[in-house]
Amino acid sequence: DAKTTQPNSMESNEEEPVHLPCNHSTISGTDYIHWYRQLPSQGPEYVIHGLTSNVNNRMASLAIAEDRKSSTLILHRATLRDAAVYYCILKRVKGAQKLVFGQGTRLTINP
Amino acid sequence: EPEVTQTPSHQVTQMGQEVILRCVPISNHLYFYWYRQILGQKVEFLVSFYNNEISEKSEIFDDQFSVERPDGSNFTLKIRSTKLEDSAMYFCASRGLAGGQETQYFGPGTRLLVL
Question: What pLDDT shows up at residue B94?
Answer without folding.
Answer: 94
